[in-house]
């Protein structure tokens, strides 16, 4: 049995999760997940005390359901774009490449959402489709 969840609902859940995780030293602003065929694109701005301006980015990821824990994980992370005002295009590209090679592999499997109820824990698999996610029970 399959149940569909719209991109709008997925974004509400992700935004709530990110709001819970935002800290004084790093905040993600205006997060948006776009669901495509088998993967998703996540865009946001990052605000940190370490830099003077907000940095905007978009990354591709593959949502993967982990049935044992009832969690939706982000895998295969790849930074597509990075906008860092005040830095040259060459510096920005070097930083983007560094993040893709050294940082993103270290956070592979970051949790996007966790089902806190029995119904959510009955999900067997998740299939990402354009504009929606199919939940297989």
Helix content: 10-25%
Overall tally of domains = 1
Report low-confidence residues grouped into runs of 5 or more. Answer: none
Mean pLDDT: 89
CATH topology: Bactericidal permeability-increasing protein, domain 1
How many strands, what sense, and barrel or not for the largest sheet?
A: 5 strands, antiparallel
* Category by helix and strand content: alpha+beta
Number of helices: 2
Number of strands: 8
Distance, first to last CA: 5 Å
Q: How much beta, percentage-wise? A: over 45%
In short:
This protein has 137 residues and is α+β, with helices and mostly antiparallel strands. Helix content is 22%, strand content 47%. Strands 2-3-4-5-6 form a five-stranded antiparallel sheet.
What do you see in this structure?
22% of the residues lie in helices and 47% in strands. It is an alpha+beta fold and 137 residues long. It has one domain (2-136): Uncharacterised protein PF07273 family, DUF1439 (Bactericidal permeability-increasing protein, domain 1). It has a 5-stranded antiparallel sheet with strand order 2-3-4-5-6. A 3-stranded antiparallel sheet has the order 1-8-7. The radius of gyration is 16 Å and the shape is elongated.
